[in-house]
Amino acid sequence: MYAGTNEPSFEQARQRVAVLMDLDVNAKALERMTERIGEERCAERDGEVEAYRKLPLTERKDKPDEVVAPDLAVVGVDGGRLQILERTGQGKSASAKSEEEAPLSPEAGHRGKHWREDKIGLLMTMTSVAAATDPCPEVPAAFVDPTRILKLTRELKTKRSASEESSGEEAAAPSKAPEAEEQTLREEAERVRWQPPEVKEKHLSATRRSWSLFGPMLAYQAWMLGFYQAKRKAFLGDGAENNWTLWRTRFSSFEPILDIIHAISYVFAAALAGRSFQEGWPCYVRWVTWLWQGSVEQVIAELAQRQTELGVPRADEGETHPRVVISRALGYLQNHKDKMRYPEYRRQGLPITSSYVESAVKQFNQRVKGTEKFWREDGAEALLQLRADYLSHGDPMDSFWQRRQASQTGMNNYTTAA
Asked: Exposed, middle or buried, 66 (CB in 10 Å: 0-12/13-18/19+)?
């Protein structure tokens, strides 16, 4: 089952089992067994979440008695992609019934009618030091270096919600964006002796259920880890509205932080919209400096002036038209300006990039995403849960196996013959 969950495919899992364990297991049998155990794990999870939802509000925002609250707790959310095959005449599972969603559009970068979104949550305990002032007030050199910012923005193409955007063509090579973001900030941190937060533990949650059902799952995990009673709390995300609806309904006591790399991508695109690189670059440097220093209102004011000069977008203009690019960037910054107090976040020792959860999404995609991979709803849900367990700190599956063994009666479950 470990191989079925963590190898890229059930066939590769069969091959790995044959080599390492000298067992000839049919790939289909391995698939059924893995999904059966995954469904048991999902049922256990759902029961725990339901019990949590029945607690009084004051207890849901507290922690279990035996849990010690961390100093710094961070929650991040994002979405991955996988293909769901709905067979004709097949009844919908509980997952599908709760998730009435349209396929991702071809314009979003995924061809075909089967692409759907899975939801990924990352809960991290981190270590950092709070300071009296902003430990890194100057914009990192990497973000005002033309050669590096061009490379970075190519890799860090702005992502949107599942209904509008995706990370690009499925056939493309996996993006290196999350690692590039984190590495860039760490290089600059060393230059100015700034210490960004360090990850201690990671706990993951993943589902094909709706966002309204994903929220309680993530909240239950946060409660179990003592996150609601942490001294410092942060919620990270990109600009997708589902992220911030989840924050408002489940994590409103956490500091909301918009991923700074997504904001930089919008600012860079807007600065060069309708301009040559020579004309737009000084504008970008000015805007990204304001952004880094927390003066997003100044960027918004100049964007509004630029929009007035160019005019509002027309219905027949594509998404790369300068008027459309400016309008999108202006709306993005206006909608999220309250989540862009980056100097204060750095002073408090909070993370300012969602690269951690984006890296986690890649780890799920490596198992479930592919042009040749099609999943049933129940099978996808089972694999996502098992993958989350194996990627989490503390070996949740070890505890599951012990509970499962303890609950066995020792009697075979024979089916009565007709």
From this structure: exposed
Q: What is the pLDDT of residue 110?
A: 52
Residue identified by tokens 């993943």 is 206
In angstroms, the CA 157 to CA 167 distance is 7
Bridge partners (DSSP) of residue 204 are: 122
Largest CA distance in the chain: 81
* Residue 307 pLDDT exceeds 90: yes
Mean pLDDT over 264-281 rounds to 93
Question: Among 50-54, 131-135, 409-413, whose mean pLDDT is lowest?
Answer: 409-413
Long-range contact list for 274-277, CB < 8 A, 24+ apart?
A: 274/310, 274/322, 274/326, 277/146
Q: Is residue 349 part of a domain?
A: yes
Q: DSSP code of 174?
A: P
Count structural domains, the chain: 1
For residue 383, being part of any structural domain is answered with yes
When pLDDT is cut at 50, 70 and 90, the band that residue 122 belongs to is very high
SS3 of 4-71: HHHCCCHHHHHHHHHHHHCCCCCHHHHHHHHHHHHHHHHHHHHHHHHHHHCCCHHHHCCCCCCCCCCC
Q: Does residue 115 contact residue 103 with C-beta atoms inside 8 Å? A: yes
Domain membership of residue 129 as a residue range: 2-261+341-401
Assess if residue 323 is contained within a domain.
no
In a domain, 377, yes or no: yes
- Measure the N-to-C terminal CA separation of the chain; round to a whole number of Å: 32
Please state the pTM of the whole predicted model: 0.85
**Measured between alpha carbons, how far is 215 from 392 in angstroms, rounded to an integer?**
18
**Which of helix, strand or coil describes residue 168?**
coil
